[in-house]
Amino acid sequence: VGPYVLVTPNETRRKQLQQIAKKELDDLEQWKKEHRPGPITLVPQRLGGNESEAQVRQSQQMILMQSKYQKKHKREEYIKAKKAAEEAEIQKKKAIQREKAEKLEVKKRQEEMQRREMLLEDQKYKTNALLNRLDTGLPKSDSCQIANPGPEPTAWKRSHAYKQALQEDENRRLEEMKREQQRKAELMELKQKQEEETRTRAHQKEQRSCLQSLFIFYCALRVNNAFLDRLQNKTQPNNIYQPGYTG
What we know:
mainly alpha; ESIP1 protein
């Protein structure tokens, strides 16, 4: 251990510090005694409301029942809103699928019409080529016409009749296609009317169910009020409390 210096304490300084600390403690105790709170004095007064105990209990029971009905009504409204949202989403998806199906049907009809038109054009081309070959193969000299005047008019009549038959067949097919398009349009319109009627009936059914729920709530409320009135009338004569006392 290295060297050290021992300093003797200053007794006078210590006594002064102790006296200052004691004086501060005495002053604190004196301040507490002077600022001690006095006794509390309150004016006597009557507590409670203007209703009787039976009325208070009845109002509490009514509030409890109303809160139950309100919770039930809110739960039903939430379920209805959720179902309506799901139904709207389903209807939206159905509408999208219906639109796609209609577009596909229109595309198929257009392709079918184009295919028929191409088939008719090809058939007409082949028929005209056949008739031209028949016309080319017939005799054209005056001597042949004078000696045998029968074959040319007969071939011309056959070709003319064949052309008329093709034209009638084409007209008939076009009429059938027009009738088919008209029938599909009528079916689509009927389907739209049926969907509109279904939506209207569903809306009316929902309104009726809402009115029935309100009517049931109203009837239950009236029955509860009547029961509470009877209970109050039975307990009123035997009540030892005054009407203005609430316990």
